[in-house]
Amino acid sequence: MARITQEQRNRYSAKVKENKVKIDAILAQEQSLLNMLKQPGSQGLGYVRFKLSEQALSLTSYQILINNLSLSLLGIKNEEALGEARKSLGRSIKYLEDIFTGYVDVPFSEYEQNLAAIEEKSYEERYKHIRKLGFAINGIEEGYGATSMWKWFIVELWGKHAALAKNSINLKKAYQDLSLDSPNRMITLSYMSLIKKLLQGSADRYREKYEVSSMKMDDFKQAISFLNALKRIHMVFGEKTETEELKKKIEIWSAKLENDLKKRDEEAKKNR
Known about the structure:
Elements: H1 6-38, H2 45-73, H3 79-100, H4 123-144, H5 151-167, H6 171-176, H7 185-214, H8 217-236, H9 240-270
C-alpha cells in the first residue's frame, strides 16, 4: 500500500471535521427526542420514535460517508466509523421495532393495532424510510467487504429490515389500494414488491448462513419463517400461483431441515 502523505491526511481530517459537526447536531436532536419519550403522559410517541429512527439513520449515513472518505482519500477502511454506523443503524431499527414489532411469521392481526401509532404517516413517507434503511445496510455491507467478520451479522440486519418493511404497512388498506381507481395504487405496488423481495432475500441469506457458516438449525428455521411470511402476503392478496409455489418450496426446505436433523442425531449416537 502506498504511503499516506500529510496532504492526504489534512484533506481527510478537514472533511471528517465538517461531517462531525453535522453528526454532533444529529446526536443532540436524537437526545432531545429521547427526552420527549421519558415525559409522563406524552402524546404521539409513535411519531417521536419514527423521527428518532430517521435521525439515527441520518447519523448512519454520515458515518458511512466518513468511511467512504477514508477509502477515497487515504485508501484504507475506517473501522471505527463503520462500527459507529452499525450502532446507529441498530438504534434506527430498534426505534421502528418499538412501533411495528419485529415479528416475522405471524398473522397481520397480531401487529395490526401497532400501526395506529403512526396512522397519519403516508405510504410515501414509510416507503422512503424503509428504502433508506436498506441503502444504509448495503452501505455498511459494502464498507466491510464480502470477506468481513461481520458478513453473517449483516444477514440479521437484512432480516430485521424485511420484517419491518412487512410490518410497516397496513395490509388491509394495501389490498384496497391495489384497486385501479385508487390514487395510492402505484406506491402500493412498489411497496408490496419491495416487501416480497426483502422477505425472499432474507430467506435465501439465512439459508446460506446455515449452509456456509453456522450449521445452526435456528438459522434454517428462520429462513423457512421468512418463506412462510412471504406466503402469508401472497395469500392475503389472493395470489394463488405464488402461494402454491411457495408451499412446495417450504415443503422442500422443511424436508431438508428434517433430514439434516436426523443425520445429526445419527452422528451424535455413533459418537457416544
